[in-house]
Amino acid sequence: MKIKFQNLGSIKEAELDLRPLTVIIGPNNSNKTYIAYSIYGLWKQLNSNSFNDYCGRENINLPIKIRASQENENIWILDIDENFYNFFNQYLKDITGAFNRNILDLFFQDSSKKIFEKTHFQVSISQDEIKQLIKQLGDYLVEDYLDNYQHSEDIPNIEYSEDQILFFLDEYINERINETSLTNDQYFLLMLAEWLDVNIFSDALPLPAERNTFINTYKILANRRYKILKETQREFFSTRSKVTDRQLELSREQGDIRYPQPVEDFLDFLTDLELENKSDPDPKNKNVFQQLADQIEYYIQNKNKTKFKNTKFGGKEIKVSVKRGLEIDLYNASSSIKQLAPLLLYLRYRAKVGDFLVIDEPEMNLHPESQVKLLEALSILVNLGVRVLLTTHSPYIMAHLNNIVNGNHEDQENLENQAQSLYLQDSQAFLKMEQVSAYEIKENKLLSLHDPDYGIRWDTLSDVSVDVQQKFFAIYEAGQKNSETNETEEE
Questions:
Q1: Torsion angle (degrees, nearest 10) of CA 236, 238, 239, 241
Q2: Which of 78, 164, 310, 412 has the highest CB neighbour number within 10 Å of its CB?
Q3: DSSP letters along 305-328, please?
């Protein structure tokens, strides 16, 4: 998935290849957070719209072919050509075009209304990416169809290619088509559109750099926002007058709490998670995401467990089990445990295949060894089907990222042996090179760090390390010269 943007902060023009794991490194104030938040915003924009509606409402006669099979009249074949891929990318262009200045001002809470005056975005997906998703739909439909046949001799022998999907008519499908007043080809086309909707732009969650503070204060902030909202609503309704821009501005100055949308969404995530009141995972039947949370606690948190616990009055609060029989409040826990708490809560209670996780500076408050362990855990998460985008300053993360893309995926036994050198010793932490994109922001440009011979080559932070060493020698030599000069003068 390619994302082009223009005039985003100090970056005039850039293109980013969003892959299952995307990492952006750069110095402070280089617009890493702008990029991460913008991609999150674009994702939400696409998630909130529907390709199915776009097809059904305005473009029901799409440039796509569907025909009944000659071998079996109850099997229809959808032939997909380049026109469909072009049409899908036109849909993306139309939707992302709406993510313009007005939306950005609110999204980033830009009171100046000038930062994003000339910012533009464009999202495109390659034919190969769409084909892969379409193939998944085709495989699912064929498998489901074959499961309905009890005798193998009843299965028709039909050949199809990667640019085709087989749809199967049965009594249930016929009833659905009749209810919608659509033709067969229109109905199957909308089925394809719905599949793409569900499998491309799923739910997204930001973990902002401010998460350490907000994990402790989200209840207070939620209560205050609610109180201000209710008081403002009552005032407006009691006057029964049209709310002017000045009134809104005055309301905001009276104490409203304003954060960029990703931060607000993070606070909503914490609040909603508590209100959902989900039961704790069954220790004997944990899903793969809950098992990953256990790994993080075991390898990074020294076995300390983060969890929700019921209060006496029916609410929930986050507690940390430090040893058997002893639980402490989260605000009394170490900064590293606070930093990891949102991720652990996400894994235990929300994570699912297809999600998109945006993490600003995952290394905060973590020891270097914990940083690289966390990178391995996030790589496992990618292999479990969650897309991850990171912004970072950490040389340890970048150095270890190159280790993670150097596994031998051609030989599973060899890969398992290589995994013994990893901190978590889990072969799922290895990613294929095509699963990863890495970028450095340098001189207001977004530069790819992919090297065909080396893997992922980075130098931003290693240059600083070398520079610090050089300064040591320069300081030492200058001190020696000064001592020699003083000795000469004394003589």
A1: 60
A2: 78
A3: EEEEEE-TTS-EEEEEEEETTEEE
Number of Cβ within 10 Å of residue 51's Cβ equals: 23
Distance CA 101, CA 110 (A): 10
The secondary structure of residue 384, as a DSSP letter, is T
DSSP sequence for 256-295 = -----HHHHHHHHHHHHHHHHTPPPPPTTS--HHHHHHHH
Structure confidence at residue 164 (pLDDT): 80
* Torsions phi, psi for 363 (to 5 deg): -80, -5
Q: How far apart are CA 291 and CA 464, in angstroms?
A: 38
Compute how many other C-beta atoms are within 10 angstroms of the C-beta atom of residue 421.
8
Instruction: Say what the pLDDT of residue 295 is.
Output: 95
Measured torsion, CA atoms of residues 106, 108, 109, 112, in degrees rounded to the nearest 10: -100
pLDDT in tens, 469-490: 677 777 777 777 666 666 666 6
Q: How far is residue 388's CA from residue 336's CA, in Å, rounded to a whole number?
A: 20
Residue closest to 3 by CA, chosen among 129, 120, 132: 120
- Please give the Cα distance from 11 to 476 (Å, whole number): 39
* Contact status, residue 202 vs residue 357, Cβ threshold 8 Å: no
Strands 75-79 and 65-68: antiparallel
Q: Identify whether the C-beta of residue 299 lies closer than 8 Å to the C-beta of residue 422.
A: no
Asked if residue 14 lies in contact with residue 4, where contact means CB atoms within 8 angstroms, the answer is yes
Residue showing tokens 């049965």: 170
Distance CA 265, CA 244 (A): 27
Q: How confident is the chain (491 residues) per 10-residue block, as mean pLDDT?
A: 91 94 92 93 89 68 72 79 85 84 81 85 89 82 68 58 77 80 78 84 92 80 59 54 54 59 90 80 90 95 87 78 82 88 94 94 93 96 96 92 90 91 94 94 91 74 64 75 62 58
Q: Where do the domains of the chain lie?
A: 1-48+357-380+388-473, 49-201, 207-351
Rg of the chain over all Cα atoms, to the nearest angstrom:
27
pLDDT at res. 383: 96
Q: What is the CA angle 149-153-157, rounded to 5?
A: 90
Cα–Cα–Cα angle for 157, 158, 159, rounded to 5 degrees: 125
